[in-house]
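Submission sheet (multi-component)
Chains listed below:
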Amino acid sequence: MANFYKDNKDLKFQFSHPLMNKIVALKEQDFKDSGNFDYAPCTAEDAIDSYQKVMEIMGEICGDVIAVNAEEVDHSGPRHENGRVFYASGTQQNQDVLTQAGLYGMSLPREFGGLNFSMVPYVMAAELVARADAGFANIWGLQDCAETIHEYASEEIKNEFLPRIQCGSTCSMDLTEPDAGSDLQAVMLKASYSEKDGKWYLNGVKRFITNGDAEIKLVLARSEEGTTDGRGLSYFVYDKSWGGVTVRRIENKLGIKGSPTCELVFSNAPAKLVGDRKLGLIKYVMSLMNGARLGVGAQSVGISEAAYREALKYAHERAQFGKPIIQFPAVYEMLAVIKAKLQASRTLLYETTRFVDVYKAYGFIAEDRKLSPEERTESKQYQKLADMFTPLLKLMSSEYSNQNAYDSLQIHGGSGFMKDYPIERIFRDARITTIYEGTSQLQVVAAQRYVTNGSYLAQMREYEKVAVKPEYELLKKEIAEMTDQFAKAMELIAGKDNEYIDFHARRLVEMAGHIIMSYLLLIDCQSDESYAASAEIFIGKSKAWNDERFSYINNFSECRMNSFLAVKGETVTEA
Amino acid sequence: MTKAFKIVVLAKQVPDTRNVGKNAMKEDGTVNRAALPAIFNPEDMNALEQALRIKDKFPGTEVLLLTMGPGRAADIIREGFFRGADGGVLLTDRKFAGADTLATSYALSMAIRKIQPDIIIAGRQAIDGDTAQVGPQVAEKLEYPQITYAEDIMDIKGGKITVKRRLERGIEIVKSTMPVVITVHATAPDCRPRNAKQLMKFKHARTLTEEQDNEHNSYLPLYTMDYLKIPEWGVNDIGGDEKNYGLSGSPTKVKKIENIVFQAKESKKLTSSAEDIELLMQELISSHTIG
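Outcome: structure written.
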C-alpha cells in the first residue's frame, strides 16, 4: 500500500504555485466544457482539486502496481517473436491498469476523450511513473506523440487517432536510423507518393526505436527525392493495422530493459502525411523533441527521487561501527546533496513545465480566435522561456539523476553492487537519460545561444527582483554575486571564435543552470520553509562549482587548446 | 438479447487493521479509531470487482453499494462511484447503533427487500471483526440461496448463476438460481482502479447531511444534479421491527476485553541429545502443548 503522490509533499506544493490559476484559466476558457462534460471543472479551485485527486490515483498505481512489477519487468523484459514485440507480463499489467484508470490522454482535449489537464499534472504523472519504473516511463511518455498529432495534424487524422489514446493505444516516434542519430538531417527512410491511389508509402529501416511495435507511429521520412538535408523530410502517421512494418530485432540494453528498443523494417507501409510536406524535421520533430526533453526531465527527477529514497532507507538500516551509517558525516553529506540536487532539478522541471503550459494553451486558443496583441506578446515571451529552459532542464536533471544514482549506490556499499537491492536497476536505468532525446552535449549546443545572447542572464535578473524574507537576504546576496560572476565569464568569451566558445560552452551553461536553480529554490523557500536546507546546501555547492568553472575559464589561455587538439591525432593501435 | 441485472454490493467501512502501530488500541482495550484510517473493507473491494465484471459483460446492469454506518461511511459509496458503480445507499440511523452481526444483517436484509436486486455480493468477512457471518445471515433472512468463498462469478445463463468457490482443499463450481447472496474471497481478482473521469464526475456526490454540514467544500450549483445525491435511509425508510435493530437486536454481549501483550519468555538451550529431546517432549505434553 504505497502512494507515490501522497508520500511526497514536494508534488502537492507545485499546485500551489501562483501561476496555476492563470494556467487553468487559459486551459478551461471560462469553464465552457462544464456544460457538456460531467467531469469538467466549474471553477479554478475545482480544476486544481481534480488535478490532485487524479494524481492520487496515479500515485497509488505507481506505488502498488508499477513499482511492484519493476523488478520482474527488468529481469524478463519484452520478447521478440515473428517480427512482433510482446511486453513482459508486468508491463502489460501496468498498461492495462493505467488504461482502466482513464489516465492515458490526460493532456488531450475532452472532445477526444482526454482530461484536458494542464502540463503540470501531466509531467508529474511522468515523474511518478519514472520513480516506480524508469523503463515503463517511456511507454507511458510516448503518448506525447498524440500532442504532436493534436498540434499539427488535420482534423481527419486527429479524429482518427486521438480518441484511441484514452483506450490505451501505444505510440512510438520513429526518427533514428543507423546513419542518422544526433544528425537527423541524414534520415533516408523513403516516403513515396503513389499517384495511383493517392497514398504515401514508406520504405527503409529505422533503428533504436523505443516501443517500436506500437499501434500508432509518427515517422520521419524523406519525401522529397534528391534532397539530402532536413528540408526534404516530412512527418507521417502510421497505424499498425495497415501492415508493412516488422520488427527485425530488439536491443539488449544496459538499462530501461522493460522498454523494447526496436530495429524496424518498412516495406511499402502505407502512411498519412502529418501537416505540411518538408516541415517534418524543421518544425514538427523539433516540437516533439522539446516535449520529449521535458519528458526526460520528468523521468530524471523520478529516478533521482527513487535513488534518494533507497539511499535514505539503507543509510538508516545499515549499522557499522555500532551505529547506523547515516550518522557519519561522509554519508549524511552525500544524502543531503542528493536531496538538494533532487529538489533543485524538480523546481526547474515544474518552472519549465509552467512556461510550456502557458504558451501551448495560447496556441490552442489561437486556433479558435485571434489573440489580442497583449496575449500574443505574452505567448511569445513564455515560448522563449520554455525554449531556453528545456535544454537546461534536460541537461541538469539527467546529469543529476546519474550522480544521484551513483551516490546512492555508493551509500549501499557492496550490497549496492549486488542484484539484491533496487538501486542497481535504478543506476542502470539512469544511464540513458543523458544520452537519448539529444545527448548532454547537444543540450549544451541548444542552450549556449541563450548564454551568448544574454537571455539566461536577463532571466536571473528577473528572479533577483523577487522579494525575500529578511532571513533569506544573505542567501540571495550570494546568488546575486554568482550572477555577477556569470556575467564576467560571459565577457571573457565574448568576441572569441566559435570553437573557443564551444569549448567552454558546457561550463557556462552549467553555471547558468546552477544560478537559476538556486534562485528557484530560494523562491520556493518563501512559501515553504522546508526547502531552506536544500536551498542553503545547493547555493553553497553551486558557488563552489561555479568558482571552479569561472577559474578555469579565467585562467585558460588560447594556446592551451593545443594540448586538447593533440588528441585528435591519436588513433587506437594494437600491439 | 442479453439481460441486465440489478446488483447490490454490501460494503463496510473498517479501521485499517493491516498496518497496526503502537496506538492501535486504547488503554481500555477498545480500538482507537482515530489512529487507524477508515478504509473500504478489502474483501468487499473484491466483491465490487465481481459486480463490475458482470456489468462489463451485461451492459445495462446496475451496480449499487449498500453500506451501514455513521455519516462518514458515505466515503464507501463515493469510492464505489469512482470505480464504476452506478449508485448506493447509506444506511444510517442512531437506532442502528451498537448492532452485532445479527442486527446488522437484519438492517441490510430490510434494505435489500426495498431495492429488490437479482444478485447480492459481499466480501467474505470484514477485517475488523473477521466473523464472516453477515453475508450468510442476510441470505437466511431473505431466504435466498447463498454461495460463500466465491472466487469468480463465471457466467449467468438461463436464470442460473455459475460460481467458482475457493475451498481449503481445492475449488468447487456451483450453480444457483437468483436472487442469490454471494460472498467473495480475497483470492478473487483485485478491484479495478479508480477511474479519473468517474472520480471527477462523482467527487461532489454527497448525502444531504453532508451537504448541510459546512465542513465540506461545496460546489452548490453541482449538487442540483440528481446523480450526486447519496440517499440516506433510516429505520423509517426500510420498515421492520424496531426491536430487531441496534443494541436491542444484538444478542452478542461483550463480557470482557483484554489487552494482550506478547512477551518473549526466557529462552532455553537444548542439545540434540536423546535426553534433552525426551525432557522437552515431557514438558510439552504436561503443558498440553502437544498430545
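Remark: The longest strand of chain A covers residues 261-274.
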